[in-house]
Amino acid sequence: MTVFANAKINLTLFVGQKQNDGYHPVSTLMQEVSLRDLINIERADKDAFFVSGANLPADGKNLCIKARDAFRTHTGINDPVSITLEKHIPHMAGLGGGSSDAAAVLKALSDLFDAGINYDEMLDIAATLGSDVPFFIGGGCRLCTGRGERVSQKYSLEKTNIVIAKGEAGLSTPEMYGRLDASGNFISDNASFAIITKTKNIKDALYNSFDDIAEAICPDVAKIKRIMFLNGAQNAMLCGSGSAVFGIYPDAVSADNAACILRENGFFAESCVTVD
Ligand code: C5P
User: From the alpha carbon of 174, which atom of ligand 1 is closest?
Assistant: First the structure.
């Protein structure tokens, strides 16, 4: 079977002070978008894993393999499978690409072997794979808290045209948390509720605790934003801990046009939409 693994953006991302477990409490309104990886999973004579479209480890370090192994530990179903991952979501971008792949593998294996893992069990397995993985089990738009693994019900917001763009340089999540610790800039969530309750427009409520730091250390972030604003963006913000940026556009034509101009300037850029 072939399944899609969609990327996410963070409409809001508020980070609190580091806890004793080494993680930071977050409050983040995550939104699934249509930029996606493709994953094919089939029963096979022996285990196999292939990656195309990116230079990623095709070994146990890959989150797809970790998800396959977590499924086996949880269910005791050890039948060999062949997994083929076609990457389109950029790496070290804050788009949750690896996390989304992991969630898609868990769900696909559960379907393939009729394992009947329920939603709550799935969330628990996902949380062992990474803070962002549980969000992708249900996707859509959800408020994620704790270290990011506690996911709310799904909220239905208006469909929005988005451009996602990234330069060559990626940003490492642990490193970005370290820089935020040094800055001491922690604030509590004052925007997600307004978006969920539709008392404020999405474009007027965007926030990301990492945004200023990313602009300071990664020149492409400000450069991409400038091009986005010059070409019709209503607002633009960092994705997760970066280095990708998303811009909000009033319609598909202006989003497609901006993506085209960003590509002409040498950036990765895709026009996409929010997914319910
Ligand atoms: O959970 P995940 O493996 O995706 O996290 C990667 C790293 O990001 C963690 O090891 C930690 O350094 C940092 N992190 C954090 N607080 C969070 C989520 C991640 O400090 N809420």
Answer: 12
Task: Determine how many CB atoms are found less than 10 A away from the CB of residue 171.
Answer: 23
Residue 80 CB neighbours (<10 A): 11
Buried b / exposed e along 111-138 (16+ C-beta atoms within 10 A): ebeebebeeeebbebbbebbbbbbbbbb
Q: Is 23 in the pocket of ligand 1 (CB under 6 A)?
A: yes
- Whether this model's pTM surpasses 0.90: yes
147 lines ligand 1 (CB under 6 A): yes
Looking from the CA of 54 toward its CB, the CA atoms found within 13 Å total 17
Determine whether 159 is an active site residue.
no
Spatial distance between the Cα atoms of 202 and 265, rounded to a whole number of angstroms: 27
Written as one letter, the residue type at 95 is L
Tens-digit pLDDT profile for residues 164-206? 999 999 999 999 999 999 999 999 999 999 999 999 999 999 9
Cα of 19 from ligand 1 centre, angstroms: 11
Q: Find out whether the beta carbon of 173 lies less than 6 Å from any atom of ligand 1.
A: yes
Q: Is 132 a catalytic residue?
A: yes
Q: Is the CB of 192 under 6 A from ligand 1?
A: no
Give the residue, by CA position, lying nearest to ligand 1 atom 8: 174
What average pLDDT does this structure show over 136-165? Answer: 98
What is the per-residue pLDDT across 238-260, written as a single tens digit (0 to 9) for each? 999 999 999 999 999 999 999 99
> Residue 61: pLDDT above 90?
no
Contact 245, 164 (CB under 8 A): yes
